[in-house]
Structure formats: structure tokens, C-alpha cells
Amino acid sequence: MPIDYKKTSSLLYQRDQYRKGGIGRWYWDWRDKKILDFIKKKHQDILDIGCGEGITLEKLVNKYKDKNILGVDVIVENVDICKKYNLPVVLGDVYGLKIKEESIDLCILSEVIEHLDNVGLALENIKRILRPGGDLIIVFPNDTFFKIARILFLKFKEAFADYGHINHFSPWSIEKILSRAGFEIIKIKNTPFGFWILSLHCLVLARKK
Fold first, then answer.
1. Which domains are present in the chain?
2. What is the pTM of this model?
């Protein structure tokens, strides 16, 4: 069943949350730095799939002015916000990417895969547009840790809110899924701690076989 993205509050008003600052913004910036650390000279054509309101996309564009960078998002409001910041963005989703076959060096899927109702099809489309040896960065949350932390801090509304996460992954399950889809795992990093059980997110760098 298709997701009603507008009902999943975590997908909207990202810049409002980001502007509040505090530890949330600090962690967002720290996590984005880890994503950018994966980007190499060979990654000239980069696609940020599910770019949201463009917070990470903006950092990519500002840091890598010599690269061809494009964001894509399924929510019209997100695309409009990106355009207000003069970011390169198009409306679309991972299931119907209107991107030339084997034309992308790096795809970024940050906090998106947990929302997808057909992960296999999404990875198939990403593999289609990646050049041979092209890379994929995936970031997904540790939902169990987030829920426990919110309960401990008495944030019950947030703990049981609908964030639209229809998939729940671990480093081990994502490795199997990517391997079946024709990707080689290059690196898996749990953040901010090395142990998954205590981490907020998992960052994965995978390569098209």
C-alpha cells in the first residue's frame, strides 16, 4: 500500500527542526559529515534520492562545486523548498527515476530505505542508473534505540508517533539485502558509537558489482 508521506511528520518541516539548533542539529551535521567523508574524487555525478528539504543536498552543493549534483524527492513541498534555496532538484521517486542508464557515480539514500514498500525494486532502479563500479550510500535509523530513548526521556508522543517506517533494518539484514541486489559491501559504520545496539544510525557504503 502506498505511503501517505504527508502523514509521516518526520518527513516534513526538516528545516524548522534544524533551525532549532541544539544537540539535534549538532548530530545532524555530524552525521552528514560522515556521509560526505565517503565521497571521493571519482564521484563526479551524484544523485541524492529522497533529499527532503535539501539540508544535506545543500552541504553537498556547497562543498563539491566541481561535481554534478542532483536531488530528487517525491513530496512537492520539499521540492519547492529546495528550489527556494536554489538547489538542483527534481520531483520524482526511486521507483521511476528518469535518469539515464549507467550515468551516476554515487547515489545517496539517507533515511529513505525504511520508508520504502518495495526495497528490491528501489535497489534495482538504483543499480540501473549507477555506472559499473558505482557506489551507493545508505543511512537508516536504529528504531529500537530511538523508541527506548524517547520513552526514557518521557517523550511518549514522539515514541509512538507514526514516522512512516515500514521497514526496520540492522547492519546484518541490510548486508544480506544489498548482496542479493547485486551490491558489494565496502564499509558499514554505526554512529555515533561502534556498537549497533547503542547507535542512532547505520551508514553503509556499497558498490555495484
1. 5-208 (3.40.50.150)
2. 0.85
